[in-house]
Design goal:
It is built from 10 helices and no strands. By secondary structure, the chain is mainly α. It has one domain.
């Protein structure tokens, strides 16, 4: 019998977690992580100087919603993979749908621009630090998600770790958007997405080691 088959068989004999319990624990962990990340952003980077003006514009909220969507999809996946034998199934569509929508917006905006302006929109002023800041700010939420998972019973540890990282990356990017002054879809769909999925990748690598039970 393969290892995966054995895990699935054991999982079928494991009592299921109460409905809603994994999600509540994960939501608490994400909320505490968001508060910690916000404190770090305020002390480290500070809010963008024109935040009160930016919040009146539509793209600020598009950027914030894009980042937050990964926190939501990560929580949805974590809710499933926090249970024995859990499978994400349709929840994976929640992960990639926002990327597709923002990519279409980025392409539509770029079609009317020259190459030089397109390059400026793509790189912005902070392309070289944006993904790394998202990774750094994700640490509190990632640790909180691991805490939540340790009190559950995940069996697909790599996927559970990815879900935890995706959740943390979404929370981190949403908080970081309060300090980030970039305002183009091409920048966000590239560098925000890279930072968020890097968090998921780190989670997938660490999950089998840190979530073993």
């Amino acid at each position: 019998m393969r290892t995966d088959d054995l895990i699935d068989a054991l999982a079928m004999e494991t009592p299921a977690a109460p409905v809603g319990l994994p999600f509540r624990r994960i939501a608490i962990a994400a909320g505490l992580g968001a508060i910690a990340a916000l404190a770090v952003v305020m002390a480290w980077l500070g809010p963008r100087p024109d935040l009160h003006v930016a919040m009146r514009g539509g793209f600020f909220w598009i950027k914030f919603a894009y980042a937050a969507s990964f926190a939501i999809s990560g929580a949805a996946l974590a809710d499933r993979y926090g249970r024995p034998g859990g499978r994400g199934r349709w929840r994976w569509a929640l992960v990639f749908a926002p990327v597709a929508v923002l990519a279409v917006m980025a392409v539509a905006a770029a079609l009317g621009e020259g190459v030089r302006q397109m390059h400026a929109d793509w790189m912005g002023q902070s392309w070289n630090v944006c993904p790394f800041r998202i990774l750094a700010l994700a640490v509190p939420s990632f640790l909180g998600a691991l805490w939540a998972f340790r009190r559950l019973a995940p069996t697909r540890l790599g996927l559970a770790g990815f879900a935890a990282g995706l959740l943390a990356g979404g929370v981190s990017a949403a908080v970081y958007s309060l300090a980030c002054q970039e305002s183009t879809a091409l920048f966000v769909v590239t560098w925000y997405t890279l930072g968020i999925f890097a968090c998921g990748g780190v989670g997938a690598l660490l999950g089998p080691r840190l979530l073993r039970w």
